[in-house]
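Quick one:
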Amino acid sequence: MNTPKEWQDYCKNKVDEILQDVGDSFPLKAPIPISEVISTYLGDVHIVASMDHDFPDGVSAFSQKDMNLGWIVVVNGKESVERQRFSAAHELGHIALFKNQSSRVFCSGESNNLEEKLCDRFAGDILMPESFVRKLYKTNTPHYLEDVAKLFKVSKQVAEIQLKRLGLPFTSRRVFVDF
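Output:
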């Protein structure tokens, strides 16, 4: 499913707006401190990495609006840090992009609907902002996918998607084993 251009632009503009807003509160650098970004942008939010919550199959996070506590973002603490960061950013996408959503949203990487795809794009864009990535490409070479992923603290898959989307070259390291 292709995301319509106007939705892609809306997503990019919202990411830029959020990073501009929070950038006034603290300096932004790679890796983007997503918990701080979420807390600064939303104000009334609790971010929890749960080790004991039973997540439905394929679900890495959910967000919920509580009348007393504000937003609660719960990520699966059993997953990698990179996945937790992506899931938290994805949940911020739901909250920032879709103001009239239900009070509880479960996100599944297996879903193919427009809202989920847009929130995935939002998460990639906020964790690897285009301006940061382009600046990296002006100052450092060669560009190994693993190094870019490590710098931005994202999975290799997220780094690859973002670099391809931006039209930037990269190579994967080859590991040679001496037998």
